[in-house]
Structures are given as structure tokens and as C-alpha cells.
Amino acid sequence: MGNKVKQLIDEHIVAQGVDPKVPPISILDKDFEKEVGAVKSKKSQALEMEHAVRFHIEKHYNEDPAFYKKLSERLKEILDAFRDNWEALAEELRKFIRETRKGREEDQTGLDPKTQAPFLGILLDEYRKKPDEQKMKDFCEAVVDMVEHIRQEIRVVDFWRSRHAQDLLRTWIINEVDDRNLIPFEKQERLADRFVELAKALHLRLIKS
Question: N or C: which end of the chain has fewer CB within 10 A?
Fold first, then answer.
């Protein structure tokens, strides 16, 4: 999450008497809305929901950086738009949390939202332009092939303890991205680093699927 966004949210929550270091009830908990609804004050409800959804975004950020970055930006927009209008803020946060609970859903790309789409999100983030139809098709095909290769590599015993194995994977990613002409050369090394970091965060999903 952007440091400025996190700092603004933290400062606001602390100022209102909520300790952001204390884990809130998970927004995925089946009793979440019941717990929040039991709080009488709309202000307190809003603060509890704000704290809970921020905690959720931070906890899962590494699993899909592009997706959760958008969520953190959307949260800031809601806070800015409804600041001090506690009733409206509570209602907007309630809607936002319901959407957030769904996570990334399958879209027109056809990519698996849990294992493939997060890699596409990083690729698009590094591309930093809206791809045309052919470029998006190229991106999706590349992600399918690259994720399959990454999946096979990280299944090797003690892969994450071997710096050499990880460097070989980074080099492979750079070469693959370069051969497919997906993004400019100066961005390829950073993309490879981000792909490897994401693969580590999604390790269990990738090796089980």
C-alpha cells in the first residue's frame, strides 16, 4: 500500500482512539456485520469498519499487489469524500467491504483470479498504459505460459532457500518478457523481481493448482 495512504489512514484512526496495532475482527468473519451492527454509534461503526478493511488490505496485499493497491486507493477516496459524515461513511464502508470480501473475480481475460490474474495485474502496472486488444491478448498468453513455468520451478524442494535457483528464475522471466516484447527493457528486471516476490506469496496456491 502507498505509504502516504497508509499514514493518512493510521493517523486518522489513532486520532479517533482506535489502536491500529490491535487486529480487528476479520471482514471475512461470518459475524462481521453483526459485530459492527452491535455498536450503537455510527462514528464507532465507521471507525471499526475502516480499521478492519485496512487491516484486510494490508494482510493480503502481497498476494495481489495491483488489486489491493486499487482497493487502498478506493478506500482513501471514500474517506476523503465522507469524512466526518459518519452515517454516510458507515454506509459507504459497509458497501465497500461487501465488495472487498468477494476478492478478485474472474473477468473477460479468462485467467484464474487466484493464481494468474495477480501476475497480469503486475504486468499491466509495469506497462503503465492501457493495452489494445492484441497487446492484452499477448499479455494473457504470456501470463499463462509464465505462471506454468514458475509453478514447476517453485515445486523444487527448497527452492526458496536457494538464491541460485531464484536468480535463474528471474533471468528466465527477463528473457521471456524480452523475447515476447511485452514491456521496455528498463522495466524488465523490476518486473522479474515482482513476479518472484508474488510467486513466493502465492506459493501454496501455485503448487496445489
Answer: C
